[in-house]
Amino acid sequence: MAKKVSTSVNITPLHDRVVVKADAAEQKTAGGIIIPDTAKEKPQRGTVVAVGGGKKDEPMTVKTGDSVLYGKYAGTEISIEGADYLIMRESDILAIL
Amino acid sequence: MAKKVSTSVNITPLHDRVVVKADAAEQKTAGGIIIPDTAKEKPQRGTVVAVGGGKKDEPMTVKTGDSVLYGKYAGTEISIEGADYLIMRESDILAIL
Amino acid sequence: MAKKVSTSVNITPLHDRVVVKADAAEQKTAGGIIIPDTAKEKPQRGTVVAVGGGKKDEPMTVKTGDSVLYGKYAGTEISIEGADYLIMRESDILAIL
Amino acid sequence: MAKKVSTSVNITPLHDRVVVKADAAEQKTAGGIIIPDTAKEKPQRGTVVAVGGGKKDEPMTVKTGDSVLYGKYAGTEISIEGADYLIMRESDILAIL
Amino acid sequence: MAKKVSTSVNITPLHDRVVVKADAAEQKTAGGIIIPDTAKEKPQRGTVVAVGGGKKDEPMTVKTGDSVLYGKYAGTEISIEGADYLIMRESDILAIL
Amino acid sequence: MAKKVSTSVNITPLHDRVVVKADAAEQKTAGGIIIPDTAKEKPQRGTVVAVGGGKKDEPMTVKTGDSVLYGKYAGTEISIEGADYLIMRESDILAIL
Amino acid sequence: MAKKVSTSVNITPLHDRVVVKADAAEQKTAGGIIIPDTAKEKPQRGTVVAVGGGKKDEPMTVKTGDSVLYGKYAGTEISIEGADYLIMRESDILAIL
Fold first, then answer.
1. Contact A70, A91 (CB under 8 A)
2. Domain that holds residue G75
3. Which domain of life, per UniProt (chains A, B, C, D, E, F, G) (predicted)?
């Protein structure tokens, strides 16, 4: 499920932040039915491309390359060298897939 | 009361989160009376299918396979391989049945 | 004042939660006067039927069988095997009678 | 100033809670002038009739029999054997008289 | 600037609370000009007449007899033996004069 | 940039509070242009004239005589011997100039 | 991407604050297209020109000269010797570029 993201980004998130490259929203269900826009509010998948150094006494759990699930409205959009990423706190990440 | 959930999911919830498969809402009371929709707002039952690694110095109490009771509005819906689950913090779980 | 509650329930409240069986509201005052509904907003009595394992470094104070006083709006209603109970945090309990 | 309250109550407040029997509101000032209702919003006096076991590492300061001053809207009214009391946290008590 | 307050009050504030006797508001400026009411919203001066025992591991800084400055709306009015006082937390006191 | 403030004030701020004498707002820019009122909402400069003893285990960083920058709406105005000062927490101070 | 900022400023931010010189907003995309104003709400880049001493037991991570990314509305504008800067907490900084 986790697609390789070849891009390596030259950015160091501070403390407990991570940079995530969102996967393209899947337009179809497993059975091939096209999902209308209103049905796409569920958490999104992405790939971690950069990880901060963690907070005091709390090392990070996710690592670069992890395919993760995060809330649809988590993080802040940033654009690095023309590509869009999300920068969020590790606590905004729900799970590693 | 706890039904076996054979599905094993390939997901690792972060920190104190758990993934729960909701039981189908019971449509009838013990006496066989059909419950109207407005009466179904009580906590729901489900089965834990994945458990995070816990927070610092706070191991998890629930484990995979536990039948649990949780608030009706707890957690975030996620869909994994076509099936719907809830991902919530352990603190949203009220009790183990 | 504490009535015996013979029911034992098969439920394990998580952490600092307890399950309480509410006593029937007393309809009459000591002098036998019937209390109108608007006068019945005071804390309620109930009997503890299940107790969680406590929080980290904070063992529980109440135990199964204790007759307790709790805020009228404390806890969440749950129904186990057809009977109604309340599940609440120990901090919602005001006193042991 | 503190009147003896002979009633002993059979109740154990939880943690940092205390049970207080409110003194009757004094209708007259020192000079004998009757105070109108709107002037009676100041803190009230009462007598502590039961004291909880304190919170973790924080023993209680007040003890049964203390005459105390507390905010007019502090605590929750409870009625034990026909008499009215207030159950409040020790932090709602302003001073011992 | 600090006037002696001869009254000693028979009251023990709880924890980090202090009892303060407010100085009479100064009606004139240094130059003798009468200050209109709307200009008197600045912090007020008073004299500490009773001091609590402090919170756990935090002894009190002010002591009885200190002339202090406190926010105009700090504390709760109490009346002891016909005289008006304020009971407030030490953190409501801005400075010792 | 920091002007000497010869006034010494007879006041002891409590805990982490400091007393600051505000510099007069500069009416002109470096180039001599007069700044209209609406452009003067930036942080203000002042000189520390008294410093509290700090909070438990947190000594103070600023000291008497420091020229400091603080938020325009920080602190409470106090008047000591006819002069106006501001009393604020050290955390309201942005920087030492 | 990080431009050298030759200006050295004579200011010591308090505790966990940093002073940042904002980079000029880039008016064009990589492909040379001019970005309209409404599209420029993303985090901004700047260069750290002064760093505070950190909070108790929490040394600072960023250092003078770092090119950083921060929320568009982070910090407070200050002007030092005619030039505009932002003073913000380190926690307002998202990443080091």
1. no
2. 17-25+40-96
3. Bacteria
Name the domain count of chain B. Answer: 1
- Asked if residue B66 has pLDDT above 50, the reply is yes
Q: Which other chains touch chain F, taking contact as 3+ CB pairs less than 8 Å apart?
A: E, G
User: CA–CA separation, A48 vs A69, rounded Å?
Assistant: 10
Confirm whether E63 is domain-assigned: yes
Specify if B82 maps to a domain: yes
Q: Which of A57-61, F2-6, G6-10, G45-49 has the highest mean pLDDT?
A: G45-49
Distance separating alpha carbons of residues F74 and F94, to the nearest angstrom: 10
pLDDT digits (tens, 9 = 90+) for E9-62: 789 999 999 999 998 765 555 566 655 555 555 678 999 999 999 988 889 999
Q: State whether residue F53 sits within 8 Å of chain E by CB.
A: yes
Instruction: Give the model confidence (pLDDT) of D42-51 as tens digits.
Output: 678 999 999 9
CA distance linking residue A35 with residue G28, whole number of Å: 35
Tokens of G4: 């050298």
- Mutation test of the interface with chain D: which of E10, E12, E90, choosing the one with the most D Cβ atoms within 10 A? E12
**What does the CA dihedral E6, E73, E89, D63 come to, rounded to 10 degrees?**
80
Residue ranges with strand state E in chain G: 12-13, 17-22, 44-51, 67-70, 76-80, 83-89, 93-96
E63 neighbors E48 (Cβ within 8 angstroms): yes
- Residue C58, pLDDT > 80, answer yes
F62 and chain G: CB distance < 8 Å anywhere? yes
The domain spanning residue D56 has which CATH number?
2.30.33.40
* Residue B30 covered by a domain: yes
Question: Residue F72: CB partners within 8 Å, gap ≥ 6?
Answer: F41, F42, F43, F44
ipTM of the complex: 0.74
**Rounded distance, CA F33 to CA G82, Å?**
12
Subunits next to C (3 or more Cβ pairs <8 Å) are B, D
Distance CA E68, CA E65 (A): 9
Burial label, D64 (beta-carbon count in 10 A; 0-12, 13-18, 19+): middle
> In G, which residues are within 8 Å of F30 by CB distance?
81-82
Q: Report if residue C41 sits inside a domain.
A: yes
Taking contacts as CB-CB distances below 8 angstroms, the residues of chain C near D19 are: 95
Strand partners, C17: C89
Provide the 10 A C-beta neighbour count for residue E9: 19
Report the relative pairing of strands D12-13 and C93-96 from DSSP bridges: antiparallel
CB atoms within 10 A of CB C62: 18
